[in-house]
Design a protein that fits this description.
Layout: E1 3-7, H1 11-23, E2 28-33, H2 36-45, E3 54-58, H3 66-76, E4 82-86, H4 91-100, E5 104-107, H5 111-122, E6 127-128
Parallel strand pairs: 1-2, 1-3, 3-4, 4-5, 5-6
Length: 136
């Protein structure tokens, strides 16, 4: 079972995602971090082993943005693929996320699409939500 670090600052959204990913997606959400700093601290504390198979990162976070966090994760933990999750579909967020090293970008309003994106990224591919107009 693959393990996921969820980085999401909205408590209700985080709880909903954890429930859906653990039950419907058959994933293991290892932990939820509310900030980029918390996520990096969590990863650092588990550095000896590959702590998770994937980081699912919200674009908008307090202090450090999700895009900045993805860049930091990719610099320090290049083996951990990152998938952005957001309610924002503007092209600038997608482009900046991919440039930072994210392997995909999914929208929060379609949980089936989120799980499809996770599976694609875990297999080494890239994924963009169908609502963004194209899939890679």
């Amino acid at each position: 079972m693959c393990s996921i670090l969820l980085v999401e600052d909205h408590k209700i959204m985080a709880e909903t995602l954890v429930h859906i990913l653990n039950t419907k997606g058959k994933f293991n959400v290892a932990d939820v971090a509310e900030t980029g700093e918390d996520a990096m601290e969590w990863l650092s504390a588990r550095e000896a082993d590959r702590p998770v198979d994937l980081a699912l990162v919200d674009v908008v976070l307090p202090r450090t943005s999700g895009i900045e966090l993805v860049w930091m994760i990719q610099q320090k933990y290049p083996d951990i693929p990152c998938l952005m999750i957001s309610g924002r579909s503007a092209g600038q967020y997608v482009k900046r996320s991919l440039a930072a090293g994210a392997r995909g970008y999914v929208l929060k309003d379609d949980f089936q699409d989120v799980m499809k994106g996770i599976r694609r990224v875990l297999k080494g591919g890239t994924y963009l939500s169908k609502q963004l107009g194209r899939e890679e």
